[in-house]
Amino acid sequence: MHGPASSGWLLVALCAVTGAYCLVRMRSGGEALMGFGMAAMAVPAAAFTPPSWAWFAYAFVFGAASVRALWAARAGAHHLHHLAGAGAMVYMSVVMAGSPAHAHGQGGSGVPLLTGALLLYFAGYVLLTGVRLVPVTAVAGNGAGHDGSAGWGERPELARACRLSMGIAMVAMLLTL
Buried b vs exposed e over 116-142: b needs ≥16 C-beta within 10 Å? Predict the structure, then answer.
C-alpha cells in the first residue's frame, strides 16, 4: 500500500497515533486495531518488506474483526462502518498476498470495481465526517474538568478527527492498490 517513502512514513505516523489515541481512550478496540494494522501495512517497502505469510495473517486478523463488527452491528449501524473498514483491510491483504512477488503496493493488482466501490464509500465517509467535525461543542458535565471543559479523552472532536484521519488513510491505501 505504498507510494513514495515520505508519504508512506507520514501515513504510518498518522495511523499509529490514531491507533494509540483509540487504545488510550479504550472506547473502541476495533478502531485501535484498525489504526495499528493500517500503520503496519503502510510501512514503506524500502524499509521493510513483510514475509509472504504476513498478508495472510493480516487477512485472518481483519477477518476476525469483520465477524466481530458484523455481530456488533445488531446493536447499531455505526458498527457497519467497522465492518466496511475491516472488510477493506481483508481485501487489501488478499490482493497483496496474491500480487506478483508480493509487490508491496506496486499497484494494478486489485479488482477495479471493488476497489472503486470501497474508494467511493471511504471518500464519502471522509467528507461526511469532515462536515460533522466542523463546529463541535463539548457537552458540559460529561468528563468535564474543573473549568467545565471536557477532558482530553472525552472530547468528541478528537474522536471524530481520529475517524477522519483513518478514513483519509484508507482512501490513500486504496488509491495505491
Answer: eebbebbbebbeebeeebeeeebeeee
Q: What is the pTM of this model?
A: 0.80
3-state DSSP call for residue 119?
helix
Which helix (H) or strand (E) covers residue 43, if one does? none
C-alpha dist (Å) from residue 116 to 3, 59, 112, 135: 18, 20, 6, 31
Residue 104 has pLDDT above 60, yes or no: no
Share of the chain above pLDDT 70, in %: 79
Whole-angstrom Cα distance, residue 89 to residue 104?
Answer: 14
Contact, 15 vs 36, CB < 8 A?
yes
What pLDDT is recorded for position 79? 81
Q: CB–CB of 18/35 below 8 Å? A: yes
Q: Judge whether 86 and 30 are in contact, CB under 8 Å.
A: yes
Cα 30 to chain centroid, rounded: 10
Extents of the domains making up the chain: 5-175
**Mean per-residue pLDDT of the chain:** 81
